[in-house]
């Protein structure tokens, strides 16, 4: 057998590619590049939106067994609760009938007063109902994902509420889903109004307990008491005014400065929320600012010339 025909290449077991250190350096540099590109230029946002749109049917399919189990349990328990609450509901209907008549009378008086004072009618807030799909797995943030997105008209910054009050706002919008950042997240903030003293402030999330808010830089002489209820002030152009937010649970005077430590508890327990209402931000409903009337240059020149003419 000729020597030139012998295969002198090593077997596959002994073949080696790039070293482990080279692979580590390459993938580390690639990860750093993608993070910087996503932060600076949002290059990964279209890819993230496409992946979220592609995975939305899979997520819904995986949630079907959970919905079946929860729905069956709720159905069995709901039969007994429905019978027990029917009588209570009938009694409340009688009580609410009188309140409805009073509210209609007050609404009619309100419209008359606004007409007399020539005031603009209040803005009508548009809303979209949504269902909570799941909570984000990140232990350092408080976020939820809902089953409504750009296809249903959701926009960034839209307030998210329940029957108990505000729970957060939309921070990312995908074609079929959206990400909601809760008020207790460390990056969340909301302008509030103390309904007792009419004092405006800002509530921030990220308190050590993880399920509370705080009012920062509150002067020591500010009138804040435990039990005060905070509502949205509406000065940010995002949240409609008058929505309940939280209640004051702790007021402590700090010895190292002239400020108080004020902690708040949200009025809605977000851990048990399944259905929410997404509102349209107020800035999308505000009328455009008036455009200044443009005066031709020739007219301005004539007006200046008339002012310069000496008096006879």
In spatial order, strands of the major sheet run 1-2-5-4-3-12
**Biggest beta-sheet profile:** 6 strands, antiparallel, barrel
The CATH class designation of the largest domain is Mainly Beta
CATH homology-level superfamily of the largest domain: Rod shape-determining protein MreC, domain 1
How much of the polypeptide forms β-strand, as a percent range? 15-25%
Number of helices: 3
Unreliable parts: none
Q: Averaged pLDDT, please?
A: 81
Short descriptors:
extended, alpha+beta, 2 domains, six-stranded antiparallel beta barrel, Thrombin, subunit H, 312 residues, 12 strands, single chain, 3 helices, 34% helix
Give your account of this protein's structure.
The mean pLDDT is about 80. The chain is built from three helices and twelve strands; from the N terminus they run ααββββββββββββα. It has helices at about 20-40, 45-115, 295-310; strands at about 125-135, 145, 160, 165-175, 180, 190-195, 200-205, 215-220, 230, 245-255, 260-265, 275-280. The chain starts with 19 loop residues before the first helix and ends with a helix. With about 300 residues, it is an alpha+beta fold. It has two domains: about 20-120, no CATH class; about 130-285, Rod shape-determining protein MreC, domain 1 (Thrombin, subunit H). The protein has a six-stranded antiparallel β-barrel. Strands 6-7-8-11-10-9 form a six-stranded antiparallel β-barrel. It is extended. Helix content is about 35%, strand content about 25%.
């Amino acid at each position: 057998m000729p020597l030139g025909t012998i295969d002198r290449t090593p077997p596959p077991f002994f073949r080696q590619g790039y070293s482990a250190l080279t692979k580590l350096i390459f993938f580390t540099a690639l990860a750093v590049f993608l993070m910087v590109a996503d932060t600076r230029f949002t290059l990964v946002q279209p890819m993230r939106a496409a992946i979220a749109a592609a995975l939305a049917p899979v997520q819904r399919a995986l949630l079907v067994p959970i919905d079946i189990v929860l729905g069956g349990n709720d159905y069995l328990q709901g039969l007994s609760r429905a019978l027990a609450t029917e009588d209570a509901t009938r009694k409340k209907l009688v009580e609410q009938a009188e309140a409805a008549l009073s509210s209609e009378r007050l609404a009619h008086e309100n419209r008359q007063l606004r007409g007399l004072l020539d005031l603009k009618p209040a803005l009508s807030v548009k809303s979209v109902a949504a269902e909570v799909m799941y909570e984000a797995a990140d232990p350092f943030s408080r976020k939820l994902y809902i089953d409504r997105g750009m296809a249903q008209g959701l926009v960034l910054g839209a307030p998210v509420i329940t029957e108990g009050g505000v729970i957060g706002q939309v921070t990312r919008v995908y074609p079929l889903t959206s990400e909601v950042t809760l008020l207790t997240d460390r990056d969340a903030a909301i302008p509030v109004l103390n309904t007792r003293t009419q004092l405006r402030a800002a509530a921030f999330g990220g308190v050590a307990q993880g399920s509370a808010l705080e009012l920062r830089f509150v002067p020591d002489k500010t009138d804040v008491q435990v039990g005060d209820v905070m509502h949205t002030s509406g000065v940010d152009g995002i949240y409609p005014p008058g929505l309940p937010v939280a209640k004051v649970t702790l007021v402590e005077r700090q010895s190292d400065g002239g400020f108080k430590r004020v902690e708040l508890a949200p009025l809605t327990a977000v851990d048990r929320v399944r259905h929410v209402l997404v509102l349209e931000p107020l800035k999308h409903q505000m009328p455009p600012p008036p455009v200044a009337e443009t005066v031709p240059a020739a007219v301005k020149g004539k007006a200046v010339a008339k002012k310069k003419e000496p008096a006879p």
